[in-house]
Amino acid sequence: MTEPAPIEVHKALADDTRYRLYRYLRRSGRAVPIRELAARLSLHPNTLRPHLRRLQEAGLVVSESRRGPGVGRPQALYAAAEPDGRAGRDYRLLADILAGLVRGGRQLERAEGLAREWGAYLVGRRPPRPGTRRPAGPNLAALQEALAEAGFDPRFRRTGRAKVEITLRDCPFRDLLDEHRELVCAVHRGLLEGMLVASRPPLRLVGFEPLRDRSSVCRLTAGIPGRSGA
Known about the structure:
The chain is α+β, with helices and mostly antiparallel strands. The chain has 8 helices and 7 strands. The protein has helices at residues 6-13, 16-28, 34-41, 45-57, 89-99, 105-124, 141-150, 181-197; strands at residues 32-33, 61-66, 75-80, 154-158, 163-168, 204-209, 218-223. The protein has a 4-stranded antiparallel β-sheet, covered by helices on one side. The chain has a 3-stranded antiparallel β-sheet with strand order 1-3-2. β4 (154-158) and β5 form a beta hairpin. α2 (16-28) packs across α4 (45-57) and α6 runs parallel beside α8.
């Protein structure tokens, strides 16, 4: 299908709810019922419907009606629109070109430092809401949302009051891993460290198992500095 106009895409995805909707549909790779979307985003279906219509108008989402086995109205399912066959090629080429400019230890350190700043920025955009009760352990909501929006598909498991284990089931830089592993790992680690430090309370990276290959996952352990076991 024809790619939607860039300005319309920008307007449609400028809203955080629409961005999260579109990202979930893209990652699902299938038609999704609105009840699943509502559960995933913790919002009422009636809240999501106008956002889905806006994404459809921008050409980013398509819908279909599917009748279930029982009697009743057909169910509306939503899916990310299939992009044009050339979609994404220019970005991969650009990434390869720019990655080739980063050579040597000093430039890798600069790339990691910049990624650390970006990580802090992505988490810092989500301050706790006024009146929110502070949890006994780390408040992981903003960190989890920032990791998800960055493309890491995180899964969290608390291993104590001061520590958490995070499994990253995807990586936004996975396609560049084979040709640019050293740079990918440096940027990956910097981004994660920046996100952890910007969390409230700040967290410290205490263990990191990076991708071994394109089919594996990353695992990291984070803790509150100064707390027992962190």
